């Protein structure tokens, strides 16, 4: 009986060794695939060396592109608070809040504000007419060029201000309620309201 038990143990040990060998071979292929993928990523992440002549030509191209940028402010890229602060300082206003309500509970609301306490800039669009909601830089890039076009000052009549805002923002004059709050750089505030 002891021989029979010994044979079982050797057979069991042999089967275990074979199983481990087979399992190990499968992992070797996977390891090789992972290693190959890692090498490909290393190659992709290596910086490309540009010969000096090509680099000079590229720099000239970039410089000429920068000099061709026009000042129409049509394509503002305010990608940070600092850029938004610089742009808002070009405006006559530190706070611009517009809310135009239409029938069927549709409204167009925009806000562009530079906060006094930390000079940060917030921008927001809530436009249920067109299903648009934006905040931050995206909203700023839409609102800023329009507000920059406005010529409203402390002497502008209510009707002229409303017409100008509706025109610049491309809004219908068939509103139910119009509200505009402006704060000028000197701290003067104007609040315009109109209901139809």
UniProtKB/TrEMBL annotation:
Keywords: Signal. InterPro entries: YusW. This is YusW-like protein. Residues 1-28 form the signal peptide. Residues 31-83 are annotated as: Disordered. It comes from the Bacteria. PROSITE patterns: PROKAR_LIPOPROTEIN. It comes from Bacillus aerolatus. The lineage of its organism: Bacteria, Bacillati, Bacillota, Bacilli, Bacillales. The keyword Signal applies. The keyword Membrane does not apply. Residues 60-73 have a biased composition (Low complexity).
